[in-house]
């Protein structure tokens, strides 16, 4: 029986980062991964690198470049002639990027002394891990500490069974070899909007069916309202309160039945993407007597330090509470590795940014205005449009705004929400500021480069206190 200081189950962003950090801290570490790539080799990187964050961004960027060349170059005085998209080449590029990134993890494992083990891991009693390889052979590892980072998988719904041909999940939507004429998307969440944007830019007529009556309910309401307006203008037909009741495939198409505004309706599509959320991959992961417990939704129960109910066993990433975000899982992995090594560090869950990679991007950190109202926290808000930012106008990319929220009495920043070009990067400035307890005034007194998109963050902070320079300030009510 092989003995390790740390055994990590899962090599996604939570697992591989935990394994690397543990090894850097001098701990003998192994990382178990059951996934395989298209070549049949171990697929390090989990969902994010193989069929999630990275490949979807590759397609988002390719599709946006096509859209720019086709529709937006003329305003710059650039003539291109006819512009065409070669979908198989786009998919080939995406696959090459995935191989490059996952291969990079293998190199990092080797450089840091992490042992990669192919197979499916299962936590046994006594801090042992059973590993079953592709041929069914079983080995058992002995560990002083176990980090469970098994991740999540797409939720399936009975009315739309996945066949990965006509009805696909988020993974299948990354493998289309041509542009669907009509594309249906079930779910107007992050994944649905991103994938819908990809194929809409390339020419699909996209209809998004969302069961909820509100659009992006987790996003600040003002930003969500602006996002709905922008995305609909781009051609996404977003139907809220549309509940899918059944599907029928025939002759290479799918007929979708759904209820909408108290009426029974049907739509026929060439492809249908089902993206209604993800669930923790906890089935078959835990022996009954291992001491690790699940909550009612299948998530592993952990405390604020990602410790399970069994001493020496931790869980991180999508398989535990909190947002299913790669960067959240990675930082949990670092925290756990450090704590195993005896460093009592903690993680600030109040400063985790979230991003939707449509164009314009949608990003936020901290509390939304709706949350502050619900919690009775006194606040003040400042907004600033990119339309008043010279750099954005010069780039022909001036849609959106920055919204800053600060405490009414202390001026401490409580949240920042952005829809606009490079929102994902801009919001990170406020993530850092919030980590240091900054006030809106602190941001307002900071020198920002000109001309930059970041000036919208600066002006929004000034607007919190009625001091914006490049737009009229709203008069405070007496």
Kindly list the characteristics that best describe this protein.
single chain; 478 residues; alpha/beta; FAD/NAD(P)-binding domain; Enolase-like, domain 1; 3 domains; seven-stranded mixed sheet; five-stranded parallel sheet; 22 strands; 26% strand; dihydrolipoyl dehydrogenase (NADH) activity
Would you write up a description of this structure?
The mean pLDDT is 97. Strands 1, 2, 3, 4, 5, 6 and 17 form a seven-stranded mixed β-sheet that branches. This protein has three domains: 2-154 and 279-347, FAD/NAD(P)-binding domain, CATH 3.50.50; 167-276, FAD/NAD(P)-binding domain (3-Layer(bba) Sandwich), CATH 3.50.50; 351-464, FAD/NAD-linked reductase, C-terminal dimerisation domain (Enolase-like, domain 1), CATH 3.30.390.30. The protein has twelve helices and 22 strands. Strand 4 (120-124) and strand 5 form a beta hairpin. Helix 1 (13-24) runs parallel beside helix 4, helix 3 (53-72) packs antiparallel against helix 4 (87-112) and helix 3 packs parallel to helix 5. With 478 residues, the chain is of the alpha/beta class. Pfam families: Pyr_redox_2, Pyr_redox_dim.
Q: Please give the count of helices.
A: 12
- Average per-residue pLDDT, rounded, comes to 97
> Could you give a short account of the major beta sheet?
7 strands, mixed
User: Would you tell me which CATH topology of the largest domain applies?
Assistant: FAD/NAD(P)-binding domain
Global shape: globular
> Roughly what fraction of the amino acids lie in strands?
25-35%
Give the terminus-to-terminus CA distance.
Answer: 74 Å
CATH class of the largest domain: Alpha Beta
Q: Quickly give the CATH architecture of the largest domain.
A: 3-Layer(bba) Sandwich
Poorly predicted runs of 5 or more residues = none
> Structural class of the secondary elements?
alpha/beta
Instruction: Count structural domains.
Output: 3
The overall strand count is: 22
Under CATH, the homologous superfamily of the largest domain reads FAD/NAD(P)-binding domain
Work out the radius of gyration: 24 Å
Residue share in helix: 25-40%
């Amino acid at each position: 029986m092989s003995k390790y200081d740390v055994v990590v189950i899962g090599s996604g962003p939570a697992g591989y980062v935990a394994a690397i950090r543990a090894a850097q801290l001098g701990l003998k570490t192994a990382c178990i991964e059951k996934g395989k790539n298209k070549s049949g080799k171990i697929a390090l990187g989990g969902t994010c690198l193989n069929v999630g964050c990275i490949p979807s961004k590759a397609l988002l960027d390719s599709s946006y470049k096509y859209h720019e060349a086709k529709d937006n170059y003329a305003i710059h005085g650039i003539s291109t002639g006819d512009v065409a998209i070669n979908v198989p080449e786009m998919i080939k590029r995406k696959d090459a990027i995935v191989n490059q990134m996952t291969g990079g993890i293998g190199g990092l494992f080797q450089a840091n002394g992490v042992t990669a083990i192919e197979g499916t891991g299962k936590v046994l009693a006594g801090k042992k891990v059973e590993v079953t390889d592709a041929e069914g052979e079983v080995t058992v590892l002995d560990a002083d500490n176990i980090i469970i980072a098994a991740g999540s998988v797409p939720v399936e719904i009975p009315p739309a069974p996945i066949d990965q041909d006509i009805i696909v999940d988020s993974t299948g939507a990354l493998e289309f070899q041509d542009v669907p004429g009509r594309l249906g998307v079930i779910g107007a969440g992050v994944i649905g909007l991103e994938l819908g944007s990809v194929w809409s830019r390339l020419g699909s007529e996209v209809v998004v069916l969302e069961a909820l009556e509100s659009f992006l309910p987790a996003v600040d309401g003002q930003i969500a309202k602006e996002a709905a307006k922008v995305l609909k203008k781009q051609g996404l037909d977003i139907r809220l309160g549309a509940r899918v009741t059944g599907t029928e495939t025939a002759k290479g198409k799918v007929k979708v039945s759904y209820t909408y505004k108290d009426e029974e309706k049907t739509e026929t599509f060439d492809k249908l993407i089902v993206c209604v959320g993800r669930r923790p991959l906890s089935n078959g992961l835990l022996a009954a007597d291992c001491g690790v417990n699940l909550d009612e939704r299948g998530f592993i129960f952990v405390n604020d330090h990602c410790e399970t109910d069994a001493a020496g066993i931790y869980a991180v990433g999508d398989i535990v509470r909190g947002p299913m975000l790669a960067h959240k899982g990675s930082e949990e992995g670092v925290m756990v590795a450090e704590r195993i090594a005896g460093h009592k560090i903690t993680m600030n869950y109040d400063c985790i940014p979230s991003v939707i990679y449509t164009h314009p991007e949608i990003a936020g950190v901290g509390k939304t205005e709706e949350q502050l109202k619900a919690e009775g926290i006194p606040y003040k808000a400042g907004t600033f449009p990119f339309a008043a930012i010279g750099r954005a106008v010069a780039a022909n990319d001036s849609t959106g705004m920055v919204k800053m929220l600060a405490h009414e009495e202390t001026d401490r920043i409580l949240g920042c929400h952005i829809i606009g070009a490079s929102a994902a990067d801009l919001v990170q400035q406020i993530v850092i500021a919030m980590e240091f307890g900054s006030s809106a005034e602190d941001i307002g007194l900071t020198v920002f480069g000109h001309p930059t998109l970041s000036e919208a963050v600066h002006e929004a902070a000034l607007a919190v206190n009625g001091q914006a320079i490049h737009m009229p300030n709203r008069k405070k009510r007496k």
